[in-house]
Specification:
Strand 1 and strand 2 form a beta hairpin. A 5-stranded mixed β-sheet has the order 1-2-8-5-3. Strands 4-10-9 form a 3-stranded antiparallel β-sheet. It has a two-stranded antiparallel sheet with strand order 6-7. The chain has helices at about 1-10, 35-40, 40-50, 70-75, 90-95, 105-115, 120-145, 150-165, 175-190, 200-225, 230-235, 250-280, 280-295, 300-305, 310-320, 375-380, 405-420, and strands spanning about 55-60, 60-65, 80-85, 150, 330-335, 335-340, 340-345, 350, 420-425, 445-450. Helix 8 (about 150-165) packs across helix 9 (about 175-190), helix 12 crosses helix 13 and helix 12 (about 250-280) crosses helix 15 (about 310-320). It starts with a helix and ends with a strand. With about 450 residues, it is an alpha+beta fold. The chain has a single domain, classed as Cytochrome p450. The chain is globular, with a radius of gyration of 22 Å. GO terms for molecular function: heme binding; iron ion binding; monooxygenase activity; oxidoreductase activity, acting on paired donors, with incorporation or reduction of molecular oxygen. InterPro entries: Cyt_P450, Cyt_P450_E_grp-I, Cyt_P450_sf. This is Cytochrome P450.
Length: about 450
């Protein structure tokens, strides 16, 4: 039996007479799953460089075609040919508790997504900004006293407190930071060997998934007894066009997905913002000048944040430049189709590269250079469809991340509070990014932090 499998696998390339995209099926049985797990970002970069924007591979026991670049990404989003239903590997479905937006498609996906989006409007952000500022102030005061510290560690704590404040209504501090540690262990399950031994990384991730679900259940009950104007409170009152709401079972899963996505997205983006401003003093000086001109003091709101055009360009370039999200969730090919004369077989898996799409030199010249001017309003408006896809592409009620604008708001608020009062410098250290699912500086971004003096 094993010999037959090996022969079948190793001769499959010889049977590719249907003009499939170039690529490799990798090792027998395992395919290319191991190199993907070891360094997901390098996996996509190397294969795009070797094979071009569309390539075949074999992941999690299934042949897969990867789409990279604006045109290919747009094709991948066509629901006539691709679906998320039953497309993700078993471990991802198990960790997400089987029934949540990244795993759905069609009418039910659109209904839920439109309900979720009601908690991510400019009007909703105005309700959240006081919590963001309160959390920022709590940690900035602590950092001022510390003077020197590792920023990644502190940003994990800040992000845990902020996620807990926005979704659960808790104050910043040690309890929220503990929830962040639990969330961290859960997230590690997505890049671990998917065998549940209880004590191993995947087993611990499943236990922490259940802890988070119970934690969210308690918060739902508390919000029903005492309504609040946080994100969970808005989701409890949100209605679809037909008047339906999310059931408690649906809500707990969607909030869990949003909770861990927000936590990881927050600390990674904030770490990279601070790194960028330290490495590019000319960019920091221009941004500080913009902050001084438009929001020199006082509480913030969406009207004020919209004035910070240059800071917004920086937030966009951070998400384009750095390898934050490697790829979309998996889809499945619904029917035989063709793209650029390549045959795309029914039943195969499909995925779209996110970071690789935003590093196509034909769209973003000198893609390895950090240039906020790429996102000046006139330049941003001229970009091809689905060329800037940091949290997915397509319409807002499709599979694009609901929290994309939330990241922009957070980076702007934190940027303002940092630049109004503080300055920082990075002592000698290794600033190379690690190979984590969400890469950050290897030494954790050590920093000397203090009051800004305009000397």
């Amino acid at each position: 039996m094993l010999v037959a499998l090996l022969v079948r696998h190793n001769t499959r390339n010889d049977q590719d007479n249907e003009n499939l995209p170039p690529g490799s099926y990798g090792l027998p049985l395992l395919g290319e799953t191991i190199p993907l797990a070891l360094d997901i970002h390098s996996f996509y970069r190397k294969r795009v460089k070797k094979y071009g924007p569309v390539f075949k591979t074999h992941l999690f026991g299934k042949p897969v075609i990867a789409f990279n670049g604006p045109e290919a990404f747009t094709f991948f989003l066509n629901q006539e040919y691709f679906t998320r239903e039953n497309a993700s590997p078993h471990p991802i479905k198990e960790l997400l508790d089987w029934d949540t937006l990244p795993l759905l498609d069609g009418d039910e996906h659109r209904r839920r997504k439109r309900i979720i989006l009601q908690a991510f409007t400019p009007e909703a952000f105005d309700k959240y900004i006081p919590s963001i500022e309160q959390t920022a102030s709590y940690y900035l005061e602590r950092w001022e006293k510390l003077g020197s510290f590792t920023w990644l560690t502190e940003y994990r704590k800040l992000s845990a407190s902020l996620t807990n404040a926005l979704f659960i209504g808790k104050e910043p501090g040690p309890m929220s930071e503990t929830v962040g540690e639990i969330t961290d262990t859960f997230i590690k399950g997505f890049s671990s060997i998917p065998i549940n031994l209880g004590f191993n990384a995947y087993g611990r991730a499943l236990k922490n998934r259940d802890w988070l679900l119970d934690y969210i259940d308690q918060a739902i009950q508390q919000h029903r007894q005492q309504p609040r104007q946080d994100l969970l409170g808005l989701l409890l009152s949100a209605r679809s066009e037909d008047g339906s709401t999310l059931t408690d079972a649906q809500l707990r899963r969607e909030v869990m997905h949003l909770f861990f996505a927000a936590y990881s997205g927050f600390y990674v983006a904030l770490t990279l913002l601070s790194l960028t401003l330290a490495q590019h003093p000319e960019i920091a000086a221009l941004t500080r000048q913009e902050v001084k001109q438009y929001v020199p003091d006082g509480p913030l709101d969406m009207t004020q944040l919209q004035k910070l055009v240059y800071l917004e360009q920086i937030t966009k370039e951070i998400r384009r430049f750095y390898p934050i999200n490697a790829a979309t969730f998996f889809a499945q090919v619904k029917k035989d189709c063709e793209f650029q004369n390549f045959h795309i077989p029914k039943g195969w898996g499909a995925v779209a590269g996110i970071h690789t799409t935003m590093h196509i030199p034909q769209v973003f010249s000198e893609p390895k250079s950090f240039k906020p001017c790429r996102f000046a309003p006139e330049n941003f408006a001229a970009l091809p469809e689905n060329s800037y896809v940091p949290q997915g592409g397509g319409s807002r009620d499709g599979h694009r991340c609901a929290g994309e604008d939330m990241i922009t708001v957070l980076l702007k608020v934190m940027g303002v509070h940092l630049l109004r009062r503080y300055s920082w410098e990075l002592p000698p250290q290794n600033l190379e990014l690690n190979q984590d699912l969400f890469p950050t500086p290897r030494d954790g971004l050590k920093v000397r932090f203090g009051i800004y003096t305009n000397s």
